[in-house]
Amino acid sequence: MAALCEAFTLCGLGPSGAVGLGAGVLALEPGPDSDHVLLTDRGRTATLFKVSDQKPLGCWSVKHGQMITCPVVCNFETHEYIAVHDDKVLRIWKDEDVNLDKVFKATLSADVYRIHSLPHGEPLVLFKGGGVRTLDVLLEAPQQEIENFISDEVIKWSEAFLEGQEPILIFATEKDGDYFIYLQKFKLNILQKYKLEQQESSNPLSFTAYIKNQIITLLCLYSNDSIYKVLIPLQQHSEEEEQILSKSLLLKLSVSGSVLKGTSFAVLDKDHVAVLGSLTAFGEESKECLTIWNTKFQTLQTSKELPLGTSGQLWCYGEKFFFTHGKVLTVNLYKCETSSLAAAVGKLKDSQTSDASFLNWNTLNDEELVVSLQSQQSVTLKSESKMTLRSKRSSVAKAPSDTLTVGQLLLDIKDSSSAAVEEELKQLLSKAQMPDVQATIGCVITALINRCKTDPMFYPQNFLIQLVQKGELSYSLCPDLMAVALEKKDMHLLQICLQRFPDIPEEITYACLKLFLSISDDYLERTDVNLDSVLCYIDIESNNKEVKTEIVENGFNTELEEDSCDTTFTKETLLKNDVEFCPVGPQRAALLNAVLHSAYSETFLLPHLKDLPAQQAVLFLRYLHYLYVKSSEKINTTLPGVLSPTINQIMDWMCLLLDAHFTVMVMLPEAKGLLSNLHKFVRAQVRFYSELNKIEGSLQELQRLKRQKDSQAYSIEVLELI
């Protein structure tokens, strides 16, 4: 039995996009461990991602004018990364390296097709002419001559395995419509060539292979909507120069009159394959889908529609699918279990159903959500021991009623009146306990958002806020929630989501920031926003329009002498009370603080920030400057209040905003004074800390002085610091 589980976004692929992926994805390779992947774009950049955190850990680019020409791979033995740019230039680096111009470089004598990294072996380098070298042998003499076995053929695909301790490389080539398979054995230094049996009016589109018991199983996806299997024994030795490989039909990609036009596929286990392609039926528009098929029983196990389109590429690592969907790279978890006829035809009563929280609620309609919850809760009851059932007979008897209440709520949300839905939501929220809180709330929110999309008059704001606060949710569990909140300009809900969701895409964070900066003050004054993060350092006037700061306690004076190298700090200068005004109102400040708290990747956020209008960028920088000054007034550089931004968050956003808009800031007259004040303030702090560093040794020496033994005696001691 196979099933698709939760899906989430790994990164954006916009035209100006994240990690420079406007030209598309070249390849995705496994990283140093099962939770990391290496993404190579069709340009200059390679990015290392931690999948569970959905964040990049490192990004490396070659210079302008250069291009990465084969997928970047990880050397699992040395934990180094290997890339080839401009076909012949080899680069090797480690995590701590930043500039690829300064890492190891070797120029090779022939064009490289691909590098294959093996778990317990030396990486293999396959050249476009068919020659193969292990990386260590190649680095001994980078300019060594490389054989050209296939001068008139073009390599279409390659893969490497370890059989025992022997590395084996297989690759497919094409010439004039004929396809050939090459098998390179390194221990015996043997290169075997085979010709693939032709298929009438059909060509292979994609290949994959695996090795077991000294036999390579080669699977080929053909343009006639079929997958064929070819067996290649490793022990076979023949004097024939070119043997013909016969193939057998493994799977026909058709079901109930619909045909899947596959573009790429992956082997999941001995009985299951995943195919990405377009599902077409007579008289209907084709739909791009991710599907899982049972090859043993020739059945379609599950499918997922991808309405935003894909690039036709599919990768599979560690029970995770990776594919492009619209302008994002999506990760979709899956599970595969032992194949049986009952599972293949959908009649298996699965007693090991995965937790409902792993379902992708956004792909299910309301009826499917009900069924999913009911099956999950019934499974939970069945898994209890008989002793537990005897001791909790009454609670078990009540469980179906609770299940029906949640299920009925999901159906009522679809078409019942707003009053009826709100009444049932009150009952749901009043429950002290509910089975699988996260999954249930995620399911209810999805149903509410679906109703909001179809009924513009329906928007239960208070209940959405309570539901978000009640469960530990994430953006990926209900991705449409923030989109609807942005459309409705629901500031309070957006504020809570920014504070609580750990995986908000940078595009959504930017959309929230732009809305918070552009919305009118009159609208904000009528908006209910949590002000806990600003009340302790912003004083709200009675007219609620002018906001001023508290009195400076231990602040810095930004008007220190500018041209003097030796700054004199007088008592009057350090104790000067300077009243400044916050450039935004308390509601806007609280919303901007929520943005500062959200997690982000600089690589992905910077392209969006460049689209921020200049006036809004200046206003945001003024507020960041205000926060920076306020934080520096305190000895511990910490703003008071709940969820107030930290000095690191303020500095990071300030640097990011200046990186995105520095040229514009310099040209704007209204920003000139702001940049000048910011420069003076930073320079004053640098000088102040420089002076502190000068007396650091003396202060440490004072701490070592022994206290007077006679504590009753009164004395005044003057210590001169030289």
From TrEMBL:
Recorded superkingdom: Eukaryota
Any one GO cellular component localisation term in the record: nucleolus
Keywords assigned by UniProt, alphabetized: Activator, Nucleus, rRNA processing, Transcription, Transcription regulation
GO MF entries: RNA binding
All copies of domain Nucleolar protein 11 N-terminal, residue ranges: 1-335
Domain Nucleolar protein 11 C-terminal positions: 408-721
Alphabetized InterPro entries for the sequence: NOL11, Nol11_C, NOL11_N, WD40_repeat_dom_sf
Intracellular or extracellular location(s): Nucleus, Nucleolus
GO biological process terms held by the UniProt record: maturation of SSU-rRNA
Protein name: NOL11 protein
Organism of origin: Nothoprocta pentlandii
